[in-house]
Write a structure and sequence with these properties.
The chain has 5 helices and no strands. By secondary structure, it is mainly alpha-helical.
């Protein structure tokens, strides 16, 4: 059976997601000795790891479905459907944790939740309308931006405000 079209793109996104997960180790070293993460920072740290691994596995899902379905569009629709359902639950859980941590007012948190919801919407649209590798890859990248924003917010909190931004 031939390879699924776009397989190198999806494998590349999976590899990038694993690299982003590796940045979590850097995040863990940002606090001075003896300091602890506050509740909101702990959520962001877990978000980097879980989002990165989710994106890595989600990138591989259509490649796993393709041999069974023998159709690119069906593989993408099935994968998008499963991910949209799963991510809806994840976003609701993270939103509840964020509210409990009283971090919903923070700009980074609002941006993270917006990107998370955006990725859910893109996966749902891909499942219901497009069945497109382009939309699927875009949804993965938007989802991975959740980890990137989380990482940046931890770095900026640990190092203080930067000049000009």
């Amino acid at each position: 059976m031939p390879a699924m079209p776009g397989d190198s793109l999806l494998i590349g996104i999976a590899q990038l997601a694993i690299v982003v997960a590796g940045f979590t180790a850097i995040s863990a070293t940002l606090l001075p000795g003896g300091s602890k993460w506050n509740q909101a920072q702990g959520i962001r740290l877990r978000t980097i790891v879980s989002t990165s691994f989710n994106v890595a596995f989600e990138s591989l899902l259509p490649l796993i479905a393709f041999p069974a379905l023998a159709d690119e569009r069906s593989s993408l629709v099935l994968s998008s459907t499963l991910i949209a359902i799963y991510l809806t639950a994840v976003v609701l859980i993270r939103a509840r944790q964020t509210v409990r941590a009283r971090a919903l007012h923070m700009r980074a948190t609002q941006l993270i939740l917006t990107a998370a919801v955006g990725s859910v919407v893109l996966f749902a649209l891909d499942a219901l309308v497009f069945g497109s590798l382009t939309v699927y890859a875009l949804a993965l990248c938007v989802q991975l931006s959740v980890a990137a924003i989380s990482f940046y917010s931890l770095v900026s909190a640990a190092t203080g405000p930067s000049p000009g931004g």
